[in-house]
TrEMBL record:
It comes from Thiothrix litoralis. Gene3D superfamilies: Aspartate Aminotransferase, domain 1 (3.90.1150.10), Type I PLP-dependent aspartate aminotransferase-like (Major domain) (3.40.640.10). The lineage of its organism: Bacteria, Pseudomonadati, Pseudomonadota, Gammaproteobacteria, Thiotrichales. GO terms for molecular function: transaminase activity. The keyword Glycoprotein does not apply. The keyword Transferase applies. Pfam families: DegT_DnrJ_EryC1 (PF01041). Keywords: Aminotransferase, Pyridoxal phosphate, Transferase. Belongs to the DegT/DnrJ/EryC1 family. This is DegT/DnrJ/EryC1/StrS family aminotransferase.
Amino acid sequence: MTQLQQNNGFLPVSRPTITKKEIEYVTAAIASGWVSSLGEYITAFEEKFAEFCGTKYALTCSNGTTSLHLALVTMGVEAGDEIIMPDLTFIATANAAKYVGAVPVLVDIDPETLCIDPTAIEAAITAKTKAIIPVHLYGHPANMPAIMAIAEKHNLLVIEDAAEAHGAEVNGKKVGAWGHCGSFSFYGNKVITSGEGGMITTDDEALYTRAKYLRDHAMSPTKRYWHTEVGYNYRMTNLQAALGLAQLERIQEILDKKQEAFAWYQAALEGVPGISLNRTAPWAKNVYWMVTMEIAGINETQRDEFMKRLRELDIDSRPYFYPLSEMADYPGTHTPVTYQVYPTGINLPSYFDMERRDVERVCAAVRKCMEMFQ
């Protein structure tokens, strides 16, 4: 066993930060008896999240995928409509489109931001295009001014997939407040968590009202147990909202720590040939949901071997998402930047309570594993 293995045990890619505040809020929710989809924590979480994002409304959902699906249904996206989205994203983005029978149109990314390339969006628009779903990947926001200009020019809907980017900004304006609506996830590995959970943000009162109606089984607001159309049970519980609210009240602390940890990574890996970490556009605030590391010129087999060696040193890691166009259900045109980038990318431990010595240990392991390319 090496010194790296002996030091402090296993370092995971992610784990939630839970304090007395979270325990107190969840305990209070349990004690209140309001443990299902009604309760004061749901209202407070929605109101404070809208305030945080700078939108008029926020609506809790059962998870990030259902929030995307609900947004698409609410906005009238139907079977046969085309939705433009990046080829490099978690599969939930495309699955939500499939749920409504829409066709995901996969386009390339910007190599610096890893987010959808606005030029590629413009080139992919057809008479069937109904919407754009930009994904704010790994904490970096997409170029929303350019995307919104394209959407306005072609009369397209914009749903921001902000599952990985709570608090990220474009020109000082937070994600989730740019498009017609935003979609967030509060899964256990996200910037803040409610265990499972999601949120729709919007300034559109009609969109908010209809999404809320459909989320609750499309039950009449004036005639209980009366339903005139198909709805969904996409509600969050008061217990989850209690956890989410406590996390939201600590979000600046969490974001500050992520900035600090990334700076530690930069310092510890400075000058290592072939390695590049998260890049940030001058117009963007990156929240570094995941610390990303790209190793120039490696292929998928080499990447997997590199990650295996990290694991042997008790360092967890994750590969970049596979291109959606690699999946059998989501064929698409070739996206050269996506295919160049994805085999080279690895997510490193990025959890809240990492100490500097933990980051330095990860970076020492990275340096050791880089020896395989010498």
